[in-house]
User: Fold this.
Amino acid sequence: MPPRRIIIDTDPGVDDALTFLLALASPEIQLEALTTVQGNVTLEKATRNALSILEMANASHIPVAQGCSHPLLKSPHNSSEAVHGSSGLGQANLPEPKLKVIETHAVDYLIERFLAEPDEISLFAIGPLTNVALAIRKEPRIVTAIRELVIMGGAIRSGGNISPLAEFNIHEDPHAAHVVFQSGIPITLIPLDATYKCLLTPADIERLNKVDSHIARFIRDAMADYMAFYQQYEGFAGCALHDPLTLATIIAPELLKLEEHYVSVDISGGVSTGKTFADFMKVWKKPANMRVALDVRGREFVELFIARMESLIQKLQ
Ligand code: BDR
Ligand code: CA
Assistant:
């Protein structure tokens, strides 16, 4: 089988960075571009991080297009520093990238790429859905041109991680999520219900750092604050591989428990704004609009992630 061609829309972000590395380490995947969006950090920082990580991983041939600096309606949160560090990459200190963004805005870039090759490329959205929603509004034909849209976002049965009910990516731009969920694009949602079962531990980081390599050191330094945050607020040593788990849909789909449901998001402006919910009992009698990962064999995914990082470390030695 030829590798699956993907574009990642992203707000790097520590676990976003790990997603790029996992994609680059996976022969089943051909990473074709990154498009950036504000979320974990400002748009400028997100874009700089995307460029720096590609450079670090010898992947400067991959184009980066810069997208939206604000959610559709609400103000940006832009204060995930406790989780991702002030740069967005924890304590990792990557040099200023030489690589530059392409001229085209991410929304136009997505439209151009998907319309040029309908049904060939899949989109992985691992930040707020602002760019994706605007692309749908600007060029509705993109809906049938995207082969599949895999989203890290939402909390279906799980509690939230930015409010008691809502998950960060969806809460950051709930109106964009609403547009995307109703669009008709074939969607797979990877919510906190699954991602919180994929915990990378300090022992895993140590294991990767047995070999001296710049990639292993980057992972250790990038994850340091993220792990400290999890220890302080979630009460365990380790952190969830939220964004990398989206790639399990390609590299290890058998690990995911996927169910088809009608899923929506609350945009009413109250305490549950940004909450994603599934109509499990089919009360609304609406057809399913996505596949949702409600469970995963988490440790197996983490082991696969580590094995792929080990092979990338070897390759880039
Ligand atoms: C999501 O929010 C961000 O902090 C992570 O990068 C991930 O995309 C998890 O809720
Ligand atoms: Ca992210």
